[in-house]
């Protein structure tokens, strides 16, 4: 439910982006009118590698290209074939997928936001305050082990959702999407004015230039990366997340609180 609402929080597609998304749909045999809202794709966990990343004797785009400029949602992540999930690693980094065949090679864009969901264990009750988990430690380890470390390393935010309060329906209504979307659009405008691209596209020297930190923030990040044994990729992703958190706060320099929140999202619960 949360993932399906994400496209409504994202900035509307510019005309060039909408044309790219429409072109991918047309190549897949699903012509549609230009849409301002980013696409949302949610393939079933039985999807093959070709269905997810594209393929065929005459290569056609897969789900990751149909989600270009939008959101790809993978529910029940450990139920996907491991080989299928591993095929996501390069497109997540490069923003494109290259399909090579004997006579020709096809390249499709695949710059999407990956959102995935999984249970804490096969029975779904591990850590629940009122229900006992029926899984053995080996079953839990096998279930969680279906998601490789390199794939997890490419997911910026790892969030554990606690069980819902039984009285949640009697609580006050949540915040509508429209004001959240305005904050997101303001954050995006700030990024484009500063560097001409979203924070997700920052790399190398750009991170040093646009992710300036005070001394406390730098010390906290260094300590956290040592404690979590983070890779260079994890460090760069944490910096991009911290930069975005600071943009939402309207701050030019990364403070310790921005870095702490970004690092907290790297503490995977799986």
Overview features:
mainly alpha, Rossmann fold, Helicase, Ruva Protein, domain 3, 2 domains
CATH topology of the largest domain: Rossmann fold
> What do the pLDDT scores average to?
91
* SS field, number of helical segments: 13
Determine the fraction of residues in helical runs and give it as a percent range. Answer: 40-55%
Rg calculated over all Cα atoms: 20 Å
CATH class designation of the largest domain: Alpha Beta
Largest sheet: 3 strands, parallel
Number of structural domains: 2
Number of strands: 7
Q: Strand-and-helix sequence, N→C?
A: HHEHEEHEHHEEEHHHHHHH
Shape: globular
Alpha carbon gap, first and last residue: 21 Å
Share of residues in strands? 5-15%
* Uncertain stretches: none
Widest sheet: strand order? 1-4-7
Can you describe what's shown?
The protein is mainly α and about 270 residues long. The chain folds into two domains: about 1-120, P-loop containing nucleotide triphosphate hydrolases (Rossmann fold), CATH 3.40.50; about 180-265, Helicase, Ruva Protein, domain 3 (Orthogonal Bundle). The chain contains 13 helices and seven strands. The protein has helices at about 1-5, 15-25, 50-55, 65, 80-85, 90-95, 135-145, 150-155, 175-195, 205-210, 215-230, 230-250, 255-265, and strands spanning about 40, 55, 60, 70-75, 95-100, 105-110, 115. The strands form three sheets. A three-stranded parallel beta sheet has the order 1-4-7. A two-stranded antiparallel ribbon has the order 2-3. Strand 2 and strand 3 form a beta hairpin. Helix 11 (about 215-230) runs parallel beside helix 13 and helix 12 crosses helix 13. The radius of gyration is 20 Å and the shape is globular. The mean pLDDT is about 90.
């Amino acid at each position: 439910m949360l993932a399906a609402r994400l496209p409504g929080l994202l900035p509307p597609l510019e005309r060039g982006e909408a044309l790219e998304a429409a072109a991918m749909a047309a190549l897949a045999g699903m012509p549609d009118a230009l849409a301002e809202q980013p696409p949302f794709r949610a393939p079933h966990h039985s999807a093959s590698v070709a269905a997810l990343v594209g393929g065929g004797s005459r290569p056609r785009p897969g789900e990751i290209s149909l989600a270009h400029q939008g959101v790809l949602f993978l529910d029940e992540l450990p139920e996907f074939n491991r080989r299928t999930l591993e095929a996501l690693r390069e497109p997540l980094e490069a923003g494109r997928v290259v399909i090579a065949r004997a006579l020709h090679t096809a390249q499709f864009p695949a710059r999407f936001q990956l959102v995935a969901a999984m249970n804490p264990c096969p029975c779904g009750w591990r850590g629940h305050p009122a229900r006992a988990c029926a899984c053995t430690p080996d079953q839990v380890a096998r279930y969680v082990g279906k998601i490789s470390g390199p794939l997890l390393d490419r997911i910026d935010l790892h969030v554990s959702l606690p069980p819902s309060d039984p009285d949640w329906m009697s609580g006050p209504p949540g915040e509508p999407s429209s004001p959240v979307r305005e904050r997101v659009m303001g954050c995006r405008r700030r990024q484009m004015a500063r560097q001409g691209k979203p924070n997700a596209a920052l790399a190398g020297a750009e991170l040093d230039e646009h992710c300036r930190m005070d001394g406390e923030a730098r010390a906290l990040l260094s300590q956290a990366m040592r404690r979590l044994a983070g890779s260079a990729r994890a460090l760069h992703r944490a910096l991009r997340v911290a930069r975005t958190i600071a943009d939402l706060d309207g701050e030019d320099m990364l403070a310790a609180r921005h870095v702490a929140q970004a690092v907290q999202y790297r503490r995977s619960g799986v």
